[in-house]
Amino acid sequence: MAANTDPEEKTADAPAEAIDRGEVASVADGDDYEHYEAVVVGCGPGGAAAAATLARNGVETLVLERGVDAGSKNVSGGLLYAEESAPYTIDDLFPEFREATAERPITDYYLHNVAGNRVKTFDITDLHEHDTEWSDAVLRRRMDSWLAERVHEMTRETGGGLLTEVRVNGLLRDGGEIVGVTCDELDPITADLIVAADGVNSELARDAGLMDWERPEEWFQGVKAVVDLPDVDDRFDISEDEGEAHLFSGDLFSDVRGGGFLYTNEESLSIGTVFHLDSLVAEEAEPHELLDALLTHPLLGEWLDGEYHEREYSAKLVPDSKKVALREPHAGRLVLVGDAGGQMQAQGPIIKGMNHAVTAGALAAEAFVEARSRGDSTLAGERYAKRLRDEGVMAKLRPRRYEAASVLGERSPVANLTDRVVDSRAGRTVLRALSRANGLERLYGSPYLSMMVPDTATPYVTLPAVIAEELGEPVEGENDIEPPSLADRIGELTYDTDVGNPHIELLDSSVEASGAAVTACPVSARDFGGGCYREEVVKTNGDEERLVSLDTQPCVECGTCAIVADTRWEHPRGGKGVEFREG
């Protein structure tokens, strides 16, 4: 799809001056801006679902996407679910979706507990299939660009359309009321509804005061490699209409809370790691090294078989819905869907996000249509939040059982005691007894228990490692692949550098304030001269000071530094910055 497709000559054609962050953009007397009934910011699955539902109901809808193409800024682990209980699925809204965009259906799901080279594997396909109509492996560039083409066709019919390479940088207000959006490339645009589907780094959500980046414990960081594998069927002994998902936990990643994943695509693998951001910082772990620990483990040797070509390295932040999913994801005319509203479900082996974005986008649009039909479109946000509750979405994103269990289970004394018990002789005896009765597999396959897993080292590191030590088998064979260096990974990415417009500003360059970004940043590392963040020793009048320096050119725009360092972060202008080919 061509970039910057004009929606029926209705958008402003003169670029507006960039609005400085920190200033509130307001309508002045005499201002006459272009107006649409609805503006959707972002054309991922949530934005596409919202736009399609609005267009089907005759709502004049403009979609603004900051990438050169939809999907060029988007990264995900790679599984899209259609839940039986969901009021909307992506193929409800786009009937040809699966045939046109999916890599392959996921029919088998495994969890590998790792201790050194010992591995105990559980088949958790029953958990994967709970409330599941279907699940497909996807790559975001292919998927989102196809969705964008359909969305553009649909929205043009109602007088709108899709514009790419437009960065929406904030909200437009009139007397304090949100009335539209401001852009780097266009004059402000007013709308009766604004759908923020602009991802985990949503500038609209922050501008509205609905989301902040203050607490690392509320976020995960995911790092992924898309790896060439033209003979997936043979390597995994599956047919072309089958696929596998694999999760990895234990001592493979030292003491960092999180795990790894592998999903089979049509002719490639998505292999990655996801960790709690506060744990990455506490352990001073390098994200690319944790990914390499998974890639080089002997267990993966049987699938990679000495051949390794990495198509793309990528990273993103992931909201922990248990902590940040907004119960009231709206403010005035603004509604948040998908990652922008914290709607990413990561609860033990349950990892779902894109499907919730689709549901939320469609429900938000539906709420606006209903509110408009009743003569007061300003009630759309309240109706949207109510629909999220009534349809059971919030119960999945913010499970009450987790909230109850975490009050006690995540207190340090309790968590430490649990670890000691699990690793004790008595604890190991209980695990062996449970295994003989197939109890462990039933526990791992329980949706009820998965939704109350505490965010401690026990479920991520201690328990899986003890299980592998007591019940696992040594992995035979070797894995002799050599992943690319961080420098090579950065060099293979595609960038359009936004010269003169750095999108990250260091507010405090001291190591104490911003040093955590050096290791937590997925394209930086200590003792590595490239990357986004670097530490350096500056000598002044005989004194030495450790400072952080910055180069935004190799940035993958994950937003990690905004949470762990003292920075001001924003997206590059439309079409600038990193461009993902796989996503």
TrEMBL record:
Give an example GO molecular function: oxidoreductase activity
Which cofactors are reported in the record for this sequence? FAD
Q: Which InterPro entries match?
A: FAD/NAD-bd_sf, FixC-like
A UniProt-annotated Pfam family: FAD_oxidored
Question: Which keywords annotate this record?
Answer: FAD, Flavoprotein, Isomerase, Oxidoreductase
Q: Where is the composition biased (Basic and acidic residues)?
A: 7-23
> Which EC number(s) are documented for this chain?
5.3.1.29
Q: Where is this region: Disordered?
A: 1-24
UniProt cross-references to PANTHER family, sorted A to Z: ELECTRON TRANSFER FLAVOPROTEIN-QUINONE OXIDOREDUCTASE YDIS-RELATED (PTHR43624)
Q: What is this protein called?
A: Putative thiazole biosynthetic enzyme
Organism equals Halalkalicoccus paucihalophilus
